[in-house]
Design goal:
Layout: E1 3-10, E2 13-16, E3 23-26, H1 30-45, E4 51-57, H2 62-72, E5 78-82, H3 86-105, H4 116-136, E6 142-146, H5 153-160, E7 165-169, H6 177-180, H7 185-195, E8 200-203, H8 206-220, E9 223-225, E10 228-231, E11 234-240, H9 247-253, H10 257-270, E12 274-281, H11 288-301, E13 309-316, H12 323-343, E14 351-355, H13 360-369, E15 372-375, H14 384-392, E16 398-402, E17 415-417, H15 422-433, H16 437-453, H17 456-480, H18 484-496, E18 500-504, H19 524-535, E19 539-544, H20 549-556, E20 562-565, E21 570-572, E22 578-580, H21 589-602, E23 607-610, E24 614-618, H22 624-642, E25 647-651, E26 655-660, H23 665-676, E27 680-685, H24 688-696, E28 702-706, E29 715-717, H25 723-731
Helix pairs in contact: 3-4, 4-5, 7-8, 9-14, 10-13, 11-12, 11-15, 18-25, 21-22, 23-24
Length: 732
């Protein structure tokens, strides 16, 4: 039996006990609308889940819940409330969630508060959620946690159930590291560690996902490869899933009698005037004062439109008990009064202001009647109003949309504006009012097709499909992880063997990766272990590395080891001298070096390492995004430059290396094994270059990759710090 458990701050219903009878009211918000739409549609089609449960806090008491629980249980899903003490909830919700995370993640650091008491409440409420969910969780459940109020929760659930399937979706922007780092150190770590408890972390846009990955790297030291992160022996993916809407619901609403009636009333009331509208929650992120200033600039700069246009501004009450919100409401109402006072005539009022909730039929009627939707938030995770307007349009209509919303990346046929540029906004309104009907329809049709194809059901299914794929990838990795059975088998083979061969990579395997290669000198514990390993006359131990010969000799020359340097270009058997494996002169370096040097200038933090038979460009110390982009440019240039030559370009772990063709670890390792004919061979490495060894020694050795990711090796070891203890366990 498979169950889907949805977890959000609030349940999708609230109880109104102000009248004689208890009224049930659906909560407002994009998440509730989206998921209820999915539940209704998926129930009609039938889904893979036998049961759906929604867990959230509530505004009613346990007694009220017990008295009304039957009527509250939805037909498409059941409800599990979390009861939180009022004072703690206030500090958690109004405090940390909406006075710290909300302003900071929306790029309002000046409005951000940093109260320890608020964070403590946030942590405690996440704990209360965890306790309630752990009580109801069963094997096979899919747990999907939503939004910024519950970012610590996934790791709490992970600690209780290591094998649980957990997804997390953030419905607001994730900020750049420069903004995120403003949080106190402990809070940063707990939030990122909390999110890393999920198997899949979802965002609305590519940028948000990349900002999260970069913050995890900077704060937790997490390694990442594209959109995959690693924490211990777990893979976590971060990806984009732009939330959809119930497209058919809004399309069908345009044909409903109630909606058409309201639309016609609006058109009759305003005569032949053009209608501009916007619908927003009360919030400083919505840019409402800039929007009003843009409209005022329009009336000032284009006087010919006065008495021919009306702007309906509908604000939905939200968080009235937070001081910054009540102050914002006062400022908006003052601006509305100023505009109406300045431009109104006896027959005409340029701005209609409403501060109340909008019934669905009125909202859809407004979408249909409007000529322009003016949606210009300063920051918005997505903005579903923009999508709903597009879905509702039948006979034209223009969407003016802030380029700083998540929706802008999908709805790029809209008229995109900078929400703080009030003059650009004024000009865009004027141009939208004159846009030919044919162009309006063409733009709308393109956007409508996109929204229809990726509606709310597709959004949910996409997320859940990707979550299932992540679990499969984790399963493959877990199956290859070195466990007790693998250690027992290797111990047994090691003990039986009369002649043994160890092929051990250095950087990232025997020693951790470091910012500057020269800082990777071996610790006494490593030297001690290697001496112990070499003291057994049955063991032949090779350090097989991309390092240059001089460095290996300097660091480990006093140990009775064999050395393979520069990926096989130079070899030194113990008690022997260094042997060159190629006679080709190094004049080719003079052709390659200038190009690498140019990228050192173009990419701060990168540097060149010159070896006898190779040139290496390192970008581990660069800004991740810039380093990756520059590495792709350089890789492309190098591949063109070295085509049809005796050189090859290796794309390694934060390095690009140019070396002679035919000099790779695979060929050299195979020569060694064929020469020695050992009974037991163990080969360990961590990088792309080590895959050559794993492939070449497929049937001749036990091969182990350090770290996650797909590999040709027989096994994986989760982290570099586990390598030495693993080797100790084999030979002990």
């Amino acid at each position: 039996m498979s169950r889907l458990i949805i977890i959000s701050n609030r349940l999708p219903y609230s109880l109104d006990t102000s009248g004689e009878t208890v009224q049930i009211r659906q909560s407002s918000g994009g998440l509730v609308s989206a998921l209820k739409g999915y539940f209704e549609l998926s129930s009609a089609k039938g889904t893979e889940f036998d049961e759906k449960i929604w867990v959230g806090s509530c505004d009613f008491s346990e007694q009220e819940w017990n008295e009304n629980k039957e009527s509250l249980q939805g037909g498409d899903f059941s409800i599990e409330p979390v009861f939180i003490e009022k004072d703690i909830y206030t500090d958690y919700y109004n405090g940390f969630s909406n006075s710290t995370i909300w302003p900071l993640f929306h790029y309002f650091p000046s409005l951000t508060e940093y109260e320890k008491q608020h964070f403590n409440a946030y942590y405690k409420v996440n704990e209360q959620f965890a306790q309630r969910i752990i009580e109801i969780m069963k094997p096979g459940d899919v747990v999907w946690v939503h939004d910024y109020q519950l970012m610590i929760l996934p790791q709490m659930l992970r600690k209780a159930n290591e094998d649980a399937t957990i997804g997390f979706f953030l419905h607001i922007p994730f900020p750049t590291y420069e903004i995120f780092r403003l949080l106190p150190g402990e809070w940063k770590k707990l939030i990122l560690d909390g999110l890393m408890g999920a198997d899949l972390v979802g965002f609305h846009t590519y940028d948000y996902a990349q900002y999260f990955i970069n913050s995890a790297k900077m704060v937790l030291g997490t390694d990442s490869h594209y959109n995959t992160l690693q924490q211990g022996n777990r893979l976590i993916k971060a990806d984009l899933f732009p939330i959809g809407i119930d497209y058919k619901k809004f399309k069908a609403a345009s044909e409903e009698e109630e909606v058409i009636l309201y639309k016609n009333q609006l058109l009759q009331n305003f005569g032949d005037k053009k209608i501009i509208f916007s619908v927003d929650r009360l919030d400083y992120t919505k840019g409402l004062n800039y929007r009003l200033q843009g409209y005022e600039n329009f009336l000032e700069r284009y006087p010919e439109w006065r008495e021919k246009v009306v702007f309906i501004l509908n604000i939905i009450p939200s968080r009235d008990n937070i001081a910054t919100y009540t102050e914002r409401k006062r400022m908006i109402e003052e601006k509305v009064s100023t505009i109406n006072g300045k431009y109104s005539t006896i027959q005409w009022q340029p701005l209609i202001y409403r501060y109340n909730h909008l019934p669905f039929n009125e909202l859809c009627g407004l979408y249909l009647a409007a000529n322009i939707a003016l949606i210009t938030p300063l920051r918005d995770g997505m903005n579903l109003v923009a999508k709903e307007f597009v879905a509702s349009c039948k006979d034209g209509g223009v969407l003016i949309l802030s380029e700083l919303t998540g929706a802008a990346s999908e709805l790029n046929e809209a008229c995109l504006v900078n929400p703080t540029d009030t003059e650009e906004m004024a000009d865009t309104i004027a141009s939208a009012l004159q846009m030919p009907l044919e162009e309006q329809k063409n733009r709308m049709q393109v956007m409508q097709k996109r929204l229809e194809e990726y509606d709310v059901v597709e959004w949910v299914n996409d997320f859940l499909d990707q979550l299932a794929k992540v679990k499969k990838e984790q399963g493959k990795l877990t199956a290859k992880l070195v466990d007790k059975n693998a250690v027992d088998k290797l111990q047994n083979e090691y003990e039986k063997a009369q002649k043994r061969c160890f092929l051990l990579d250095y950087d990232g395997t025997l020693a951790p990766l470091v910012r500057i290669p020269s800082e990777a000198a071996p610790k006494p514990t490593l030297i001690s272990f290697l001496e112990k390993l070499c003291s057994d006359e049955k063991n032949e131990v090779f350090i097989i590395s991309g390092r240059d010969a001089a460095t290996l000799e300097k660091w480990l020359g006093h140990v009775k080891l064999h050395f393979i340097a520069e990926h096989g270009a130079v070899v030194k058997y113990k008690n022997g001298g260094w042997e060159q494996q190629t006679t080709i002169p190094s004049a080719w370096k003079d052709e390659i070096r200038p190009m690498l040097q140019s990228y050192v200038f173009r990419c701060a933090g990168s540097f060149i390492e010159e070896k006898q038979h190779a040139l290496t460009w390192h970008y581990r110390n660069t800004h991740e995004g810039l380093g990756f982009i520059r590495s792709r440019e350089l890789l492309n240039n190098l591949l063109q430059l070295t085509a049809n030559s005796h050189l090859q370009v290796i794309d390694g772990n934060k390095v690009l290396e140019v070396r002679l063709t035919g000099m790779d670890k695979g060929m050299t390792a195979l020569k060694v094994v064929n020469k020695l004919s050992p009974d037991f061979t163990l080969c360990i490495g961590d990088d792309t270059t080590d895959e050559d060894m794993f492939t070449a020694l497929d049937t001749k050795a036990f091969t182990i990759k350090v770290g996650a990711g797909s590999t040709s090796a027989n096994f994986n070891i989760a982290q570099q710090k586990d390598v030495l203890s693993f080797l100790e366990s084999i030979i002990s």
